[in-house]
Design a protein that fits this description.
The longest helix has 38 residues. The protein is globular and about 55 Å long. It has 171 residues and is mainly alpha-helical. Helix 3 packs parallel to helix 6.
Length: 171
Amino acid sequence: CIIAEQGDGVPPIWTALPATAVLMTPAKYIFSNFTGNDLSKHFQYIFMQAILLIFVVWGVGSLLRYGLSRWISGMVISAFPYGTFLVNMVGCFLIGFIMFYTERFGSQSQPWRLLLVTGLCGGFTTFSSFSWENSQLITDHRVILFLLYAFGSVLLGLLATYFGIMAGKNI
């Protein structure tokens, strides 16, 4: 199975894949090409630690989202989904802040970005709930609330990310 011709500016590992690669998961294929010496075993160990840590931090973000969303929804009785809305706005701010703030540390910030942005904020923010709640608002014929929620989330989410970037810049 040829992906690219030799000399197309593509690294040699991507020029051709053996037929057995189609039957493997991506991680198994990657690991099968790095096995056999101590360096590759160390790489596998570090890689699996990173995946496990991101998974755990993602879980923490999900628990924080659930708790905060429930707390907000318990305080405000409304058809408008304030819980998800505020969680997503906080998440947008945090992503902007973390990405800009850690930029000054160059490649050393990559592990922190993976943990805090991919893990924590990835688990904390929720597009699926946003989508479901918009569907429910349309189904319930609450068109004005749907428009406010959908467009407000996008516009205010971009503003929150921008304010996060500005906060990261000023620290």
